[in-house]
Amino acid sequence: MRRSRAILTVLATGALTAGALTVLSPSADAASTLGSAAAAQGRYFGTAVSINKLSDATYSSILNREFNSVTAENEMKIDALEPQQNQFNYTTADRLITLANGMGAKVRGHTLAWHSQQPGWMQSMSGTALRSAMKNHITQVMTHYKGKIDSWDVVNEAFDDSNGGRRDSNLQRTGNDWIEDAFKTARAADPAVKLCYNDYNTDNWTWAKTQGVYNMVKDFKARGVPIDCVGFQSHFNSGSPYPSNYRTTLQNFADLGVDVQITELDIEGSGTTQANTYANVVRDCLAVTRCNGITVWGIRDSDSWRASGTPLLFDANGNPKQAYTSTLAALGGSTSSPSPSASSSSASPSPSASQSSGTRSCTATVTVNAWTGGFVATVKVTAGGAALTGWTAGLTLPTGSAVTNTWSATAAGTSGAVSFTNVGYNGTVAAGGTTEFGFQGTGNPPSTTTTCTAR
Ligand code: G3I
């Protein structure tokens, strides 16, 4: 049931044009980004997104290039969606859905029932009125987003940090059955979406909080309370370090018959230590069949809620960190993607020989993911028999179409004949090697006829 919905979503948002649609079948040489490498492993690699940062070109470019799942960092929380009781404001959050459709990305919904970030009117409620308000919020929001979300964090952070019992909150005081009531309400609102319980400090198998959540999920499964997944926020730092039994924790939960997802990953630190921990987390997820996705809680260190701990994969300037390289490698991806023939033929010549041998040439191929009113185009530039020091790809947009956003290239023109030139880091391409850039547009997608000028 859920599988067929996921495929239908892709078909509905990805009307195929003359180019090949590769959303569901990443090719081997596409695994040069976190999202494509994870997809090759049957997983997603996502990030928290802050809508007000989308106008930041560096942020948007990394987002579009690297990730195939998004979570609203704050915009789908209760205070954002229902600021006054029964008055819903979806405008900002809906932008995330549009963005995700353009990227061909999944969306994690975060979060429906939580003691924190409640609007003022809810904070002052209690008893049956609060329980009804919680259920109404779940029903209204899930109905609005029906068919558009992959997994919902139905309940967030409901357990006490130390004793393995429930956290005290106004929701908890409505009765111990509030969590199962939330999940039953959620299932009734949208039978197809995955319903998750999400929490932090549940990574170490020996911790009381981990056991408390485990016992709740076990009980829900035994009694038929609907639950499909458990989210492990995995905010790691010196007070809550990555535990050596993390894989055991993920596997034990998965064995209860739920998917497990790493939902808010960040690891404070730097250099090799941080890089190794990121790689360990990825390897642990890949080792557990039902660990179907990883989300990092922000893009650049400067975007993090814990910015001073530099816990993310890109530095404040948007450069990939050592942790990025180790994460990509653990996912089976690679930062360089020369074709096998090029690497074998260039086994003996010196670097200077390969620079000067032959005339530089390149080709550009376009893959399009289109929907009514818009499209995302991914363009692969392939070097000929000599290494490139720069390239410009050109193509023509149909009348009425326009480029709205470009990543990993600099665009010249937005309509008609447009061209895209390499940026600083991807101008150099080995003989036979490839690099990719992309752009988003409104209107109908371009034809697959391209030009490529090599330098
Ligand atoms: O946007 C306003 C700004 O206009 C105002 O001037 C400023 C002054 O306080 O606040 C800004 O809003 C802040 C918002 O982040 C955006 O930066 C809120 O105060 C602040 O409370 C909010 O913090 C968020 C936090 O959840 C709230 O609980 C963090 O961004 C967000 O990363 C964090 O995410 C949580 C997950 O939802 C659940 N798990 C833990 C995780 C980290 O705390």
From TrEMBL:
GH10 domain span: 31-330
Top EC class for this record: hydrolase
Region annotated Disordered, chain positions: 330-359
One BP annotation, GO: xylan catabolic process
EC number annotated for this UniProt entry: 3.2.1.8
The organism's place on the tree of life at top rank: Bacteria
Keyword Hydrolase listed: yes
UniProt feature, compositional bias: Low complexity: 334-357
GO function terms (MF aspect): endo-1,4-beta-xylanase activity; polysaccharide binding
Active-site residues, as the UniProt record annotates them: 264
UniProt keyword terms in alphabetical order: Carbohydrate metabolism, Glycosidase, Hydrolase, Polysaccharide degradation, Signal, Xylan degradation
InterPro entries: CBD2, CBM2/CBM3_carb-bd_dom_sf, CBM2_carb-bd_dom_sf, GH, GH10, GH10_AS, GH10_dom
Matches recorded under SUPFAM superfamilies: (Trans)glycosidases (SSF51445), Carbohydrate-binding domain (SSF49384)
Range of residues in the leader sequence: 1-30
Domain CBM2: start-end pairs: 355-455
Protein family according to the UniProt entry: Belongs to the glycosyl hydrolase 10 (cellulase F) family.
Protein name in UniProt: Beta-xylanase
Organism this protein belongs to: Actinoplanes campanulatus
